Amino acid sequence: ILVFFIHSYFAQEITDTSFISVVNHKVSYFFSCSITRFAVPMFFMMSGITFFKDYNNKKYLAKIKTRLFTLVIPYLLWNTIWMLWEIFTSYSFLSKFATSEPYPLTITSILKGIFFYNCNIPFWFIFDLIIFSFLAPIVFLIIKNKYVGIISVIVLSVVSLFGIHLPMNIFYYPMAIVFYLMGAIIGYHFFDFASQKSSKPLQIASVIFLAAYILAKNIAPQEIHIDNYLTQTIVYTLAAFSLWNVVDVFIEQIKPRAIYRRSFAIYAMHLNVAIVILKILAFCTPKNEWLEIPKFIIMVVSTLIIVNLICAFLEKFVPKVYATLMGNRVNKK
Fold this sequence. Notes:
333 residues; mainly alpha; 69% helix
Protein backbone atom coordinates (compact mmCIF):
# COMPACT_ATOMS: atom_id res chain seq x y z
CA ILE A 1 0.00 0.00 0.00
CA LEU A 2 2.93 2.35 0.67
CA VAL A 3 4.11 1.79 -2.91
CA PHE A 4 0.54 2.43 -4.10
CA PHE A 5 0.63 5.85 -2.42
CA ILE A 6 3.97 6.67 -4.08
CA HIS A 7 2.22 6.31 -7.45
CA SER A 8 -0.88 8.27 -6.46
CA TYR A 9 0.24 11.90 -6.76
CA PHE A 10 -2.96 13.56 -7.89
CA ALA A 11 -2.50 17.34 -7.61
CA GLN A 12 -2.44 19.38 -10.79
CA GLU A 13 0.23 21.93 -11.54
CA ILE A 14 -0.08 24.94 -9.26
CA THR A 15 -1.63 27.79 -11.23
CA ASP A 16 -2.46 29.98 -8.25
CA THR A 17 -2.21 30.10 -4.48
CA SER A 18 -5.87 29.46 -3.82
CA PHE A 19 -6.77 27.55 -0.68
CA ILE A 20 -7.90 24.38 -2.44
CA SER A 21 -4.87 24.34 -4.75
CA VAL A 22 -2.51 24.51 -1.78
CA VAL A 23 -4.48 21.89 0.16
CA ASN A 24 -4.45 19.51 -2.82
CA HIS A 25 -0.69 19.78 -3.16
CA LYS A 26 -0.09 19.39 0.56
CA VAL A 27 -2.28 16.28 0.79
CA SER A 28 -0.86 14.79 -2.40
CA TYR A 29 2.72 15.47 -1.31
CA PHE A 30 2.04 13.98 2.13
CA PHE A 31 0.91 10.63 0.73
CA SER A 32 3.17 10.40 -2.31
CA CYS A 33 6.40 12.08 -1.29
CA SER A 34 6.83 12.02 2.48
CA ILE A 35 5.45 9.06 4.43
CA THR A 36 6.14 6.61 1.61
CA ARG A 37 9.51 7.52 0.08
CA PHE A 38 11.55 5.29 2.37
CA ALA A 39 9.29 2.28 1.75
CA VAL A 40 11.20 0.99 -1.28
CA PRO A 41 14.63 1.27 0.39
CA MET A 42 13.14 -0.61 3.36
CA PHE A 43 11.88 -3.36 1.03
CA PHE A 44 15.34 -3.71 -0.50
CA MET A 45 16.78 -4.06 2.99
CA MET A 46 14.19 -6.68 3.91
CA SER A 47 14.94 -8.60 0.71
CA GLY A 48 18.65 -8.60 1.53
CA ILE A 49 17.92 -9.81 5.06
CA THR A 50 15.73 -12.64 3.78
CA PHE A 51 18.17 -13.81 1.14
CA PHE A 52 21.31 -13.79 3.28
CA LYS A 53 19.92 -15.18 6.51
CA ASP A 54 22.01 -18.36 7.10
CA TYR A 55 23.46 -17.96 3.58
CA ASN A 56 26.50 -19.70 2.15
CA ASN A 57 27.41 -20.35 -1.45
CA LYS A 58 26.33 -23.99 -1.17
CA LYS A 59 22.76 -22.71 -0.74
CA TYR A 60 22.98 -20.47 -3.81
CA LEU A 61 21.20 -22.80 -6.25
CA ALA A 62 18.43 -23.55 -3.75
CA LYS A 63 17.94 -19.82 -3.14
CA ILE A 64 17.83 -19.12 -6.87
CA LYS A 65 15.32 -21.93 -7.39
CA THR A 66 13.06 -20.33 -4.78
CA ARG A 67 13.43 -16.89 -6.40
CA LEU A 68 12.54 -18.43 -9.75
CA PHE A 69 9.03 -19.01 -8.37
CA THR A 70 8.74 -15.95 -6.13
CA LEU A 71 10.34 -13.38 -8.46
CA VAL A 72 11.17 -14.45 -12.01
CA ILE A 73 7.95 -16.23 -13.04
CA PRO A 74 5.57 -13.62 -11.52
CA TYR A 75 7.73 -10.86 -13.03
CA LEU A 76 7.43 -12.29 -16.55
CA LEU A 77 3.74 -13.16 -16.19
CA TRP A 78 2.62 -9.76 -14.86
CA ASN A 79 4.74 -7.92 -17.42
CA THR A 80 3.11 -9.98 -20.16
CA ILE A 81 -0.40 -9.45 -18.76
CA TRP A 82 -0.04 -5.68 -18.60
CA MET A 83 1.64 -5.52 -22.01
CA LEU A 84 -1.30 -7.45 -23.53
CA TRP A 85 -3.70 -5.12 -21.71
CA GLU A 86 -1.87 -2.13 -23.16
CA ILE A 87 -1.99 -3.61 -26.67
CA PHE A 88 -5.67 -4.51 -26.32
CA THR A 89 -6.70 -1.09 -25.04
CA SER A 90 -4.50 0.69 -27.59
CA TYR A 91 -6.13 -0.96 -30.59
CA SER A 92 -9.74 -1.35 -29.46
CA PHE A 93 -12.76 0.66 -28.38
CA LEU A 94 -11.06 0.89 -24.96
CA SER A 95 -8.30 3.14 -26.29
CA LYS A 96 -9.31 5.86 -23.80
CA PHE A 97 -8.02 3.56 -21.05
CA ALA A 98 -4.59 3.08 -22.62
CA THR A 99 -1.78 4.66 -20.63
CA SER A 100 -0.01 6.06 -23.69
CA GLU A 101 -0.02 6.17 -27.47
CA PRO A 102 -0.78 2.87 -29.28
CA TYR A 103 1.76 0.31 -28.11
CA PRO A 104 4.26 -0.46 -30.91
CA LEU A 105 3.79 -3.97 -32.27
CA THR A 106 7.45 -4.64 -32.91
CA ILE A 107 9.69 -7.46 -31.72
CA THR A 108 11.78 -5.00 -29.71
CA SER A 109 8.77 -3.45 -27.99
CA ILE A 110 7.28 -6.83 -27.15
CA LEU A 111 10.57 -8.11 -25.71
CA LYS A 112 10.94 -4.91 -23.67
CA GLY A 113 7.38 -5.28 -22.47
CA ILE A 114 8.03 -8.81 -21.22
CA PHE A 115 11.59 -8.53 -19.92
CA PHE A 116 11.96 -4.82 -19.07
CA TYR A 117 8.62 -3.85 -17.45
CA ASN A 118 7.70 -1.30 -20.18
CA CYS A 119 4.00 -1.58 -19.32
CA ASN A 120 4.45 -2.39 -15.65
CA ILE A 121 6.69 0.30 -14.19
CA PRO A 122 6.40 -0.70 -10.48
CA PHE A 123 8.14 -3.99 -11.33
CA TRP A 124 11.49 -2.24 -11.73
CA PHE A 125 11.92 -3.29 -8.10
CA ILE A 126 11.49 -6.98 -8.99
CA PHE A 127 13.88 -6.55 -11.94
CA ASP A 128 16.57 -5.22 -9.59
CA LEU A 129 15.95 -7.98 -7.04
CA ILE A 130 16.33 -10.64 -9.72
CA ILE A 131 19.70 -9.22 -10.73
CA PHE A 132 20.86 -8.89 -7.11
CA SER A 133 19.77 -12.47 -6.42
CA PHE A 134 21.77 -13.86 -9.34
CA LEU A 135 24.77 -11.82 -8.18
CA ALA A 136 24.53 -13.24 -4.64
CA PRO A 137 28.03 -14.81 -4.66
CA ILE A 138 29.52 -11.37 -5.40
CA VAL A 139 27.36 -9.72 -2.74
CA PHE A 140 28.40 -12.45 -0.30
CA LEU A 141 32.06 -11.81 -1.09
CA ILE A 142 31.51 -8.19 -0.06
CA ILE A 143 29.49 -8.78 3.12
CA LYS A 144 31.01 -12.03 4.41
CA ASN A 145 33.32 -9.92 6.55
CA LYS A 146 30.99 -7.50 8.31
CA TYR A 147 33.58 -4.73 8.47
CA VAL A 148 34.28 -4.95 4.74
CA GLY A 149 30.53 -4.91 4.14
CA ILE A 150 29.93 -1.86 6.33
CA ILE A 151 32.85 0.02 4.76
CA SER A 152 31.52 -0.88 1.29
CA VAL A 153 28.11 0.57 2.14
CA ILE A 154 29.73 3.78 3.42
CA VAL A 155 32.01 4.10 0.37
CA LEU A 156 29.17 3.48 -2.11
CA SER A 157 27.03 6.08 -0.30
CA VAL A 158 29.78 8.73 -0.33
CA VAL A 159 30.91 8.23 -3.95
CA SER A 160 27.29 8.67 -5.05
CA LEU A 161 27.86 12.39 -4.42
CA PHE A 162 30.22 12.32 -7.39
CA GLY A 163 27.80 10.52 -9.68
CA ILE A 164 29.30 7.07 -9.12
CA HIS A 165 26.47 4.58 -8.73
CA LEU A 166 24.59 1.86 -10.58
CA PRO A 167 23.92 2.78 -14.23
CA MET A 168 20.56 4.54 -14.46
CA ASN A 169 19.90 3.19 -17.95
CA ILE A 170 19.60 -0.27 -16.35
CA PHE A 171 18.62 0.32 -12.72
CA TYR A 172 15.63 2.54 -11.95
CA TYR A 173 16.99 3.53 -8.52
CA PRO A 174 20.80 3.62 -8.58
CA MET A 175 21.15 3.41 -4.76
CA ALA A 176 19.14 0.19 -4.50
CA ILE A 177 22.29 -1.89 -4.12
CA VAL A 178 23.31 0.09 -1.02
CA PHE A 179 20.09 -0.77 0.83
CA TYR A 180 20.25 -4.37 -0.38
CA LEU A 181 23.81 -4.64 0.97
CA MET A 182 22.65 -3.23 4.31
CA GLY A 183 19.97 -5.90 4.47
CA ALA A 184 22.47 -8.59 3.48
CA ILE A 185 24.81 -7.53 6.29
CA ILE A 186 21.98 -7.58 8.81
CA GLY A 187 20.66 -10.92 7.58
CA TYR A 188 24.05 -12.63 7.65
CA HIS A 189 25.66 -11.07 10.73
CA PHE A 190 22.93 -9.58 12.91
CA PHE A 191 19.73 -11.50 12.17
CA ASP A 192 19.14 -12.70 15.73
CA PHE A 193 19.66 -9.20 17.08
CA ALA A 194 17.38 -7.65 14.42
CA SER A 195 14.69 -10.25 15.15
CA GLN A 196 14.40 -9.26 18.78
CA LYS A 197 11.41 -7.21 19.86
CA SER A 198 12.27 -3.52 20.09
CA SER A 199 12.52 -1.98 23.53
CA LYS A 200 10.01 0.67 24.62
CA PRO A 201 12.59 3.51 24.57
CA LEU A 202 13.62 2.52 21.03
CA GLN A 203 9.99 2.40 19.91
CA ILE A 204 9.37 5.86 21.37
CA ALA A 205 12.53 7.22 19.72
CA SER A 206 11.39 5.69 16.41
CA VAL A 207 7.98 7.37 16.64
CA ILE A 208 9.66 10.71 17.39
CA PHE A 209 12.04 10.34 14.43
CA LEU A 210 9.24 9.41 12.01
CA ALA A 211 7.13 12.33 13.21
CA ALA A 212 10.09 14.71 12.81
CA TYR A 213 10.86 13.33 9.36
CA ILE A 214 7.27 13.74 8.16
CA LEU A 215 7.03 17.26 9.60
CA ALA A 216 10.32 18.30 8.02
CA LYS A 217 9.29 16.84 4.66
CA ASN A 218 5.93 18.61 4.65
CA ILE A 219 6.61 21.89 6.46
CA ALA A 220 10.22 22.85 5.75
CA PRO A 221 10.60 24.98 2.57
CA GLN A 222 11.86 22.99 -0.40
CA GLU A 223 14.82 25.32 -0.89
CA ILE A 224 16.39 24.27 2.43
CA HIS A 225 16.05 20.54 1.77
CA ILE A 226 19.44 18.89 1.26
CA ASP A 227 18.43 16.15 -1.13
CA ASN A 228 21.10 13.96 -2.68
CA TYR A 229 21.83 10.24 -2.74
CA LEU A 230 23.99 10.40 0.40
CA THR A 231 21.41 12.24 2.52
CA GLN A 232 18.69 9.99 1.13
CA THR A 233 20.67 6.93 2.19
CA ILE A 234 21.12 8.23 5.73
CA VAL A 235 17.55 9.47 6.21
CA TYR A 236 15.83 6.54 4.50
CA THR A 237 17.89 4.06 6.53
CA LEU A 238 16.90 5.72 9.81
CA ALA A 239 13.26 5.99 8.66
CA ALA A 240 13.19 2.32 7.61
CA PHE A 241 14.55 1.15 10.96
CA SER A 242 12.14 3.45 12.77
CA LEU A 243 9.15 2.14 10.83
CA TRP A 244 10.28 -1.43 11.51
CA ASN A 245 10.41 -0.70 15.24
CA VAL A 246 6.98 0.95 15.18
CA VAL A 247 5.40 -1.86 13.15
CA ASP A 248 6.85 -4.29 15.70
CA VAL A 249 4.38 -2.88 18.22
CA PHE A 250 1.39 -3.92 16.11
CA ILE A 251 2.62 -7.09 14.42
CA GLU A 252 1.75 -9.29 17.41
CA GLN A 253 -1.87 -8.17 17.15
CA ILE A 254 -2.22 -9.14 13.50
CA LYS A 255 -1.57 -12.50 11.90
CA PRO A 256 1.31 -12.07 9.41
CA ARG A 257 -0.73 -13.93 6.76
CA ALA A 258 -3.44 -11.25 6.96
CA ILE A 259 -0.86 -8.63 5.99
CA TYR A 260 1.13 -10.72 3.56
CA ARG A 261 -1.29 -12.73 1.43
CA ARG A 262 -2.57 -9.94 -0.85
CA SER A 263 0.10 -7.29 -0.54
CA PHE A 264 1.88 -8.62 -3.65
CA ALA A 265 -1.39 -8.56 -5.58
CA ILE A 266 -1.90 -4.90 -4.67
CA TYR A 267 1.67 -4.18 -5.74
CA ALA A 268 1.25 -6.02 -9.05
CA MET A 269 -2.12 -4.53 -10.04
CA HIS A 270 -2.51 -1.16 -8.33
CA LEU A 271 -1.07 1.17 -10.97
CA ASN A 272 -2.95 -0.02 -14.04
CA VAL A 273 -6.21 -0.53 -12.15
CA ALA A 274 -5.91 2.95 -10.62
CA ILE A 275 -5.25 4.50 -14.05
CA VAL A 276 -8.49 3.02 -15.39
CA ILE A 277 -10.45 4.28 -12.36
CA LEU A 278 -8.95 7.77 -12.68
CA LYS A 279 -9.87 7.91 -16.37
CA ILE A 280 -13.42 6.86 -15.58
CA LEU A 281 -13.63 9.51 -12.86
CA ALA A 282 -12.22 12.13 -15.23
CA PHE A 283 -14.87 11.22 -17.80
CA CYS A 284 -17.74 11.24 -15.28
CA THR A 285 -16.85 14.33 -13.25
CA PRO A 286 -16.10 17.96 -14.13
CA LYS A 287 -12.56 19.26 -13.90
CA ASN A 288 -12.64 20.95 -10.53
CA GLU A 289 -9.86 21.19 -7.95
CA TRP A 290 -12.40 20.74 -5.15
CA LEU A 291 -12.99 17.21 -6.44
CA GLU A 292 -9.33 16.12 -6.44
CA ILE A 293 -9.19 14.79 -2.88
CA PRO A 294 -12.59 12.99 -3.08
CA LYS A 295 -11.48 11.41 -6.37
CA PHE A 296 -8.19 10.38 -4.76
CA ILE A 297 -10.08 8.64 -1.94
CA ILE A 298 -12.46 6.95 -4.39
CA MET A 299 -9.51 5.83 -6.52
CA VAL A 300 -7.62 4.28 -3.58
CA VAL A 301 -10.65 2.54 -2.08
CA SER A 302 -11.94 1.33 -5.47
CA THR A 303 -8.54 0.00 -6.50
CA LEU A 304 -8.15 -1.98 -3.28
CA ILE A 305 -11.68 -3.39 -3.61
CA ILE A 306 -11.20 -4.37 -7.26
CA VAL A 307 -7.81 -5.99 -6.58
CA ASN A 308 -9.29 -7.99 -3.70
CA LEU A 309 -12.26 -9.07 -5.83
CA ILE A 310 -9.93 -10.23 -8.61
CA CYS A 311 -7.87 -12.14 -6.03
CA ALA A 312 -10.96 -13.75 -4.52
CA PHE A 313 -12.18 -14.82 -7.98
CA LEU A 314 -8.83 -16.27 -9.06
CA GLU A 315 -8.23 -17.92 -5.71
CA LYS A 316 -11.61 -19.69 -5.86
CA PHE A 317 -11.76 -20.74 -9.52
CA VAL A 318 -8.11 -21.06 -10.63
CA PRO A 319 -6.10 -21.44 -7.41
CA LYS A 320 -2.98 -22.80 -9.11
CA VAL A 321 -2.88 -19.90 -11.55
CA TYR A 322 -3.43 -17.47 -8.69
CA ALA A 323 -0.65 -19.05 -6.63
CA THR A 324 1.73 -18.82 -9.59
CA LEU A 325 0.88 -15.16 -10.23
CA MET A 326 1.49 -14.41 -6.55
CA GLY A 327 4.83 -16.24 -6.50
CA ASN A 328 3.32 -18.91 -4.21
CA ARG A 329 3.00 -16.26 -1.50
CA VAL A 330 -0.61 -17.29 -0.81
CA ASN A 331 0.72 -20.36 0.99
CA LYS A 332 2.96 -18.40 3.32
CA LYS A 333 2.10 -18.60 7.00
